[in-house]
What does this fold into?
Amino acid sequence: MRKSYLMTPGPTPVPSEVLLAQAKPMIHHRTPDFSLVVRECVSGLKYVFQTEKSDILIFASSGTGAMESAIVNCFSAGDKVLVCYNGKFGQRMAQIAKAYAVDVTILEYGWQTCVNPSDIANHLQANPDTRGVIITQSETSSGVLNDVQAVGEIVCNYPDCVLIVDSITGIGAVDCKTDEWGLDVVMTGSQKGLMLPPGLAAVSVSAKAWRAYERSSLPKFYFDWKKYLKNLEVDTTPFTPAVSLMIGLSEAIKLMREEGIQNIISRHERLAKATRFGCEALGLKLFAPPNGRGNAVTPVWVPDGIDGKKLVSIMKNKHGVTIAGGQDDYAGKIIRIGHLGYFGNFDIITTLAALEMTLMELGYEFEAGSGIRAAETILMEDSK
It folds into this structure.
């Protein structure tokens, strides 16, 4: 028998309480029982998104569905939109916008570089008719954390420009103060910090975003925000929802409320720090820049002479620890260790142990146990 550990930045492990809640007998979605579930989910997501002013809408879709909903509900064909990206998923937002004939300007940064808020300020000064700024808070592909608070302070000065934030791997791992930072649209997916299987997406919609909705003329049906808002007023959904996932979400939010959102963020900071220190103690180089490392995932350069794809394969198939490889140009060149959602101290220790054993098997030279010791030091210090 071999026990398996899922250490990817999505999907992430699911708590037993959530799994058991989803295993309950099916209920009909047009009943008072399910309306109670809807109310619990909306209220809980407001807590997690740190918003009282924005509306919360929930879709049966992946995070990409939430991305597409933001485009079709906020813009019209030909609208000027600025997309800032430093990874695969920021790039996806640009691709979606272009598919709907939005006039996209791209601020592209390297995958190891943070978005510079000053570049956004300069662009808006030169193009005050810009209708939207789109940015990823926590970029899953690169591990880079962008300063959406600073961007919010800039965009709030433009009443006809909405700020759309992809926080799919940010929510639940890093601070995302939706109201305080002036974030008009924030999105996440169920298989990340919410500790659920894939299949749900959620967005927060501010008053400014609703004004953008009224101007928007792009085609929309399944992702029409107004349909969801109208139904949420009576605690239901416009289309058949993912009933079991919604029940699981209500249970996951109970766990998150019990821990407390700031404690959750602190836990993620601790696990990320321990992972980074452990990898560096092995002589490995971190991928994301020191001034922009998030708490959701730690990308690490594969050492010279080591086959990155083989490293991932051995960890999974021999040691039972599944991590993620690099994407696009970085496939085989970096590995990504996830610690987003239902993770604790010993998940990190186990993963570093498997990484050490795999590196030894592949001929990489280092002091055995050094990564584990470094991580333990961080975890013990932060538990005092």
In short: The first strand starts at residue 5 and ends at 6.
